[in-house]
């Protein structure tokens, strides 16, 4: 009986560990399929392409106005702004969780900024029937 128990416990731990990994992978895949995940990936694609107009389409109107104001204050044209955004874009990005409360949502993510592990918070609002990004913040704090 003892030998059977000793074999069963490690086997059970392996199965549970594999199940947890598969579940985590499925959760990430599910987050990619959400309207918020799709909006974030659209913004990421726009940044990589240097497409300022497409980038702004993923943002709320208030965030668009703030972006235009900051770009102007920094004496940047849209091309330079997108180069800056591309340099700050997290790599190895994984969407990790999403909470939705009526017309607002917060998505958590992990990625690397300048090669350093970071955690991100992306805030969304529903505007004109579509999910738009309000803001995002990244930190390397543990």
Can you describe what's shown?
The chain has a single domain, classed as Nuclear Transport Factor 2, Chain: A (Roll), CATH 3.10.450.50. It has helices spanning 2-33, 35-49, 52-57, 61-73, 78-88; strands at 91-101, 104-113, 116-127, 130-139. It is 54% helix and 30% strand. It is an alpha+beta fold and 142 residues long.
Q: How many helices? A: 5
Record field, number of beta strands: 4
Radius of gyration: 20 Å
What ranges have pLDDT less than 50 throughout 5 or more consecutive residues?
18-27
Mean pLDDT: 85
What structural category arises from helix and sheet content? alpha+beta
User: Main β-sheet: number of strands, strand sense, barrel status?
Assistant: 4 strands, antiparallel
Q: Give me the CATH architecture, please.
A: Roll
**Number of spatially distinct domains:** 1
Give the helix proportion (percent range). 40-55%
Order of secondary-structure elements: HHHHHEEEE
Beta-strand share of residues: 25-35%
Adjacency order of strands in the biggest sheet: 1-2-3-4
Kindly identify the CATH topology: Nuclear Transport Factor 2, Chain: A
CATH domain class: Alpha Beta
From the N-terminal CA to the C-terminal CA, the straight-line distance is 44 Å
Give a quick rundown of the structure.
The chain is of the alpha+beta class and 142 residues long.
Question: SSE layout and pairings?
Answer:
Blueprint: H1 2-33, H2 35-49, H3 52-57, H4 61-73, H5 78-88, E1 91-101, E2 104-113, E3 116-127, E4 130-139
Antiparallel strand pairs: 1-2, 2-3, 3-4
């Amino acid at each position: 009986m003892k030998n059977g128990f000793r074999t069963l416990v490690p086997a059970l731990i392996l199965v549970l560990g594999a199940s947890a990994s598969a579940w985590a992978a499925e959760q990430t895949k599910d987050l990619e399929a959400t309207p918020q995940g799709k909006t974030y990936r659209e913004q990421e694609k726009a940044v990589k392409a240097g497409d300022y107009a497409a980038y702004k389409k993923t943002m709320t109107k208030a965030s668009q106005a703030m972006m235009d104001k900051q770009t102007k204050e920094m004496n940047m044209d849209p091309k330079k702004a997108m180069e800056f955004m591309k340099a700050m874009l997290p790599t190895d990005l994984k969407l990790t969780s999403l909470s939705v409360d009526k017309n607002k949502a917060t998505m958590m993510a992990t990625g690397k900024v300048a090669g350093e592990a970071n955690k991100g918070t992306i805030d969304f609002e529903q505007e004109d029937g579509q999910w738009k990004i309000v803001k995002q913040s990244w930190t390397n704090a543990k």
